[in-house]
Amino acid sequence: MKIRVSKLMPYMVVLILLAGLVSDCTALGGLGKKPQDDHQEVDSQKVPVEVATARVDTIQNIREFSGVLKPINEVMVIPQMPGKVSKVHVKVGQQVKEGDVLIELEAGDVEQQIAQAQAAYEASKASVELSRRKLQDLESQKNRLQAEIDKLDKQIEEINKSINEARQAIEPEIARLEEMRQKGAITDEQFNEQKSRLEEHLKQLQDGLEKLLQQKSALEKSKLEIESAIKSLPYDSKTLDAQLNQAKMALDVAKGAADKLKLLSPIDGVVSSLSVQPGQMATQASPPVTVIDMTALILDIRLSEFDVMKVQPSQKVDVYVDAAGSQQVEGVVEWVSPSTDSRSQAYGVRIKIDNSHSPGKLRPGMFARVSLILDKKENAIAVPKRAIVRQGDKTYVFVIKGGSVERREVEVGMDDGERIEVISGLKSGEQVVIKGQAYLKEGDEVNIVKEES
Predict the structure, then answer these.
(1) Is 32 a residue whose pLDDT tops 60?
(2) Most buried among 39, 89, 193, 275, by the most CB within 10 A?
(3) pLDDT tens-digit series, residues 233-251
(4) How confident is the model over 434-449, as pLDDT tens digits?
(5) DSSP secondary structure string, 259-279?
């Protein structure tokens, strides 16, 4: 043991000398220090942070949707019949009133179309009358045959009745004659002669019945042939009436067009498009004039199944149109679709914007954004989102306590993108660190360099 201690002695001596040297240097350095240097050294050990105060506020979940503005009403003015334009009374962008004349068509084309429609009606009328006469003739023959068949049926019924009566009358007589023949009162020759005389009347009746049945069969065959002829016709009475009515309607439309050579504006509004000039044709295929009502605009947006439940008709919303400046305009939810669109699988929502006060400021086709308040929480304790520190599934803030911080677990709720609701773990008026948390731990002293109002 003594040998081991003697071996360690040199090392112990060196350590003692080094400790003394360090102590002397410290003492010498301390002689030159000033009191404020001590204070600066203490501050330099504190963590610089920025803080904000938790306060009661309203938190809103606002989402932005976009679309293109459309006029509340858009009407394409179309001529009832094609015609050449004689006059144009408006230009694009012009304000018009309901009933104002927009364009006029030449009468020549319309008169020609009236003549064509009249000729078509007369031809159709003649064809229909001829077909109707043929149909009526066949129907008359059929009815006449049916009347004859009905008459034969009555005759057949009567002759059948006579045959039954005759048979009932002669059967006892024949039985009596048979009895007399058995008794030898009359001969066989006498019996056959008297029996033939009795049966002669019955035979005549039966022959008459046979003729009547043959006549009825011939009449029924003729009736079937007429019915077949009627069925084979490419028309019936209703079809003929429809054909004539169609031709009459075409004629009426042509005559009505003569009274409508002037195309009138159906609404108050602005001419948004004009596609014809004098001398050009105005047709139904390409509407010559379009008039829009810009006193109100509509914005159609689409919402998911989660968002649509938080929007109601008559709800007021903020709309922003970048092309018209940064100032917001008020919109109102006009309706919410009860079902999804088959293509987008989203719910349509229409927003109406009053544009009557400044109709030239907002225009159809402009891109618009709308802010919808989907959730709202009043009287909530709120702090900037920057104050939140997340670790795993837990949420913390650093609360100022005197000159140090307390790491406190909190429960958070709704946020509006900048501020977040603290449901529990924090009181209104407490200060929380919003910058510098990365360098903090429980109990660290801090130096507040900035306080957010």
Answers:
(1) no
(2) 89
(3) 766 667 777 877 888 887 7
(4) 999 988 999 999 999 9
(5) TT-EEEPSSSEEEEEE---TT
Residues 282, 289: Cα–Cα separation, whole Å? 9
**Which fold is adopted by the domain 79-104+261-287?**
OB fold (Dihydrolipoamide Acetyltransferase, E2P) (2.40.50)
Model-level pTM greater than 0.90?
no
Q: Which CATH superfamily is domain 292-375 in?
A: Efflux pump adaptor protein, beta barrel domain (2.40.30.170)
The whole-angstrom separation of Cα 148 and Cα 154 is 10
Residue count (the chain) = 453
Confidence band for 81, pLDDT divided at 50, 70 and 90: confident
pLDDT at 69 over 90: yes
Structure tokens at 262: 């002037």
**DSSP secondary structure letters along 267-335:** SSEEEEEE---TTSEE-SSS-SEEEEEEEEEEEEEEE-HHHHTT--TT-EEEEE-GGG-S--EEEEEEE
Query: Are 79-104+261-287 and 292-375 equal in CATH topology?
Result: no
**Where do the domains of the chain lie?**
47-60+378-452, 79-104+261-287, 111-244, 292-375
CB-side neighbour CA atoms (13 Å) of 95: 4
- We find that the CATH architecture of domain 47-60+378-452 is Beta Barrel (2.40)
Q: Which long-range contacts (CB under 8 A, 24 or more apart) does 150-155 make?
A: 152/212, 152/215, 152/216, 152/219, 153/216, 155/212
Asked whether 92 and 271 are in contact (CB, 8 A), the reply is: yes
